[in-house]
Every structure is written in C-alpha cells, then in structure tokens.
Amino acid sequence: MPDRKNTSETPIRTAVANEDGIDFVLIELFFFAYRDFTSDPDQMLAHYGFGRAHHRVLHFVNRGPGLTVAELLDVLKITKQSLARVLKQLIDAGHIVQLQGPRDRRQRELYPTAKGRALALALARPQSRRIHAALQDTGAEGRAFIEGFLKAMVNPELRAQIDALPKAQE
Amino acid sequence: MPDRKNTSETPIRTAVANEDGIDFVLIELFFFAYRDFTSDPDQMLAHYGFGRAHHRVLHFVNRGPGLTVAELLDVLKITKQSLARVLKQLIDAGHIVQLQGPRDRRQRELYPTAKGRALALALARPQSRRIHAALQDTGAEGRAFIEGFLKAMVNPELRAQIDALPKAQE
DNA sequence: CAAAATATGTCAGTACTGTTGACATATTTT
DNA sequence: AAAATATGTCAACAGTACTGACATATTTTG
User: Fold this and answer.
1) Are the beta carbons of B12 and A131 separated by less than 8 Å?
2) Mean pLDDT, chain A, whole residue set
3) Domain of A72: which CATH number?
C-alpha cells in the first residue's frame, strides 16, 4: 500500500486543546453521551424492523395524542416525504392510528394505540433509567442545572415547542 | 383519502407523562439539544460536500494526532468500511495525511494538515459558542454538574477512552 | 360560486452514513 | 514457514434524510 499522497502536506503533530477557548471537553462528552443514550432503544427497535425515526414519531405521538401531521413535521424538522414511510409503517404495524380532524377534515390527527403506547414506554424506559442513574452520580441538586443547560442549548425559536409538551406535573 | 385501517384500533387520547416515573422531559430536551448542537457544523460541512461523519473523523484526528486507524475505529464504534470512504475523502481533500507507523509499519498514523486543523477549529467554534452561552444562562457553577452528568450518561466501559483524550489544562 | 390556498399523500431520484461478507496485501508474531 | 494482525477494497444492502413534481380533498377568499 503506497502512501496516499506525497504532495508535501505537512502533518501537525500537536493535539488541539483549548485553542481559541474552544470547549472540546464538553463537545466530545455531548457526542459520547448522546451516542450511548440512543443505543438502548436502537437495539430494541431492530427487533421490530424499526429505526430511530420510528422512535421519534412514536414518542411525540404519545406525548401529544391528536397531533396533526403538520405539527409533527414542525417538531421533528423533517420533510413530509421523510415522515411518510416511517409513519405508514407505524400505522400498518398498528402502533398509530389516524383520525380525520374534527374541525378541519383535511387534517389527520395521530393517536397511539395500546400497542403503540406500550412500545413507546418500553423504549423510553432504558433511557430514563440511564438519566436517573446519571443524575444520582451527579447529585440530585444538579438537575435544575442540567435541565437549564439542555434547554439553553436549543435554538431560542424552538423553545416554545418544548414548553408546549406535557410537563411532569400534569 | 380513506382512513387507513378500520380494524378497530382504539386511539389513546391521553398524553403519556411521568408514567412509570419515566423522565420524558429530559429525554426530549436531550433530543432537541443534540439536534441543534449539530446543526451549525452540519450547515458548514455541506459547503465542502462533507457530512457529520467527516466532522467526527476530523475532530478526533485533531484531538489525537498520530491516532491509528484501529484506534479511530474504536473511538467512533463504526466499521472500517464505513470509515474508509469518509477518511479517503478527507485525505484526498488534503485535510488529513497518513504516515506509516514507526514501530509497526502495518499501521497508518493519522495526522491533520494545516487545512484540516483550520477546518476542525472552524467547525468546533459555533458548537463551543453555543455551549458557552448555555453555561452562562445556567450559571457558571453548573459546569461541574453538566460535565459529570454527560460523563455519567456514557457507558462505563467507554469512559476510559474519554479520559485518554487531551484535557483542557494540557 | 369559482379560484386560491392549505393539508396531506405519493412517486421518483439522490445523498450520506451505516451495515455485513468476502477477499487482498503487507507486516509482525509465533 | 505459518498464523495472526493492520489495513485496504469490492459489492450489496438498509435507514434516514433530501429535492422536485404532482394528485386529491377540503377550506378559505375574493
């Protein structure tokens, strides 16, 4: 195997760290944390022939039953063509049902079935367990910081959407 | 458009919240936060014809110059076939160079070029800015909690890898 | 009422990132 | 000399996203 280039591209041998005050530690931690956060449901979904996109749809339909297709697209920030396949599979598998909108009959309201509710809970369980364990490691008084931090990481325009979802006390 | 099924799949009309003590709030916040966290570099990468996978390779090669291919695969947890395309493109574009390993000549040590270093920094900058702003919103004393929480979210077996990366004080 | 706008669905093509399986080459270890 | 290792490469496939175009039903507007 020959060396791929000899166009005198000089290799840099020093590790980048803290340059321009860039927070590489948190950047990496966020990557690793999210990867492992999604790994448990990913494994479960594989048994159903579903992927991460199915999980997200199932999650938000369970969190806000009666959601219209347009509202779901707005939350997920994907195109309707992307949603279509995933949603169709969830409907065909009996996890989600569509009802014609009562006010506007063009709309399709999305509801979970008992099966869809059960799957959503099963997928959320290991994620919640992981979060709970991490909070205990950190100290329970850290929760407010963590919630505040994550919310502050979200684009300001979108925070309204988050507040529109059901809260813990409901 | 007919209703897709009439197999008497009963819709559930109540939102799921706090069931089985599941922490839906943090699950969702983590999803939204990560999505927006990756959106800035994603946009920049599109200009180069690169994707998120290129970003990750570039990041870790910059964080640990001299990394071998096997070490990189171990960090990213992908197959070598997945890495191959992405790595080849980065090498061809002059962001990364490969040097034959000094001890073991089968190995290929990966180093960033000046161009690769510059791109890595440019991609990290908006992410770090977002993190910095979020920390300020939260209060600076929350940083330890957030770092601890994110690290605790990572699978224990993999935390050693994280500790092996350069720290801020180096 | 007719026309325009809206909500949804669908077809076709493409890109990126990941997978598995198989096999080749160079090098090191046994 | 044989086996193991590090890397590279070819082929096929899957999941999730994208764009563009067009169809249908329904509501809103002029």
Assistant:
1) no
2) 90
3) 1.10.10.10
